[in-house]
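Continuing the series of single-chain predictions for the mutant panel. This is the parent chain; the variants come on the following pages.
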Amino acid sequence: MTETVYFISDLHLDSERPAVTGAFFDFLRQISSDTNGAPADALYILGDLFEFWVGDDDDSPLVGEVADALREFGDSGRDLYLMHGNRDFLIGADYAARAGARLLDDPVVITPGGEAVLLMHGDSLCTRDEDYQRFRTLARSPEWQADVLARSLDERRQLAAQLRMASRDAGSRKATDIMDVTPSEVARVMRETGVRTLVHGHTHRPARHDEPNGTRWVLGDWDAQGWFLRHENGDISLNNFDIFQ
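Parent structure:
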């Protein structure tokens, strides 16, 4: 039986970038339509769907519009999966239920068409960025998350803005290779999970890489172009389209 699975990541949806949000909604409609050449059986969103996330109680219009679009996609008979990224790691079970999505662990192995595929957001592979890895460990702790979510929405929005600014400032001062994946870490996770195919995002460097243990596919971020990976009948292809067309 043919199974068509799509993968996307790093859309960084933000009210300040309505064209990207509109392109995402169009993409959902296209891959769920039977008139599309390869309609989706499932869609995997591998982190950073949003530019930032302040909690499932966020009442901004964008949050509701995205939930409605995702719910409509799932109601069309497609499976929908959502993984945390480094910007939206506070997405919880309430929002996933509202959007009709299932939250995924990072990493996780799936088997589309019987083939084992390892899915990750990708930030944990960047082990040379030691400052970020320390923050990642802190931000994934239940104590830190509980403390943040106990604050008011306004306080959380201010914190998110501060973290975004700090991230951009730190990124501008780091060497390019520091913020890319560490080859030895890629080899380790592929070897330990026993897979020949790894799919991730985070680095914003879309490409296909031949690794010692198999193939690594990197999804691109959505900016001037939208990027997606399609897995169909054992064939994998990395694709893009112009958002401002």
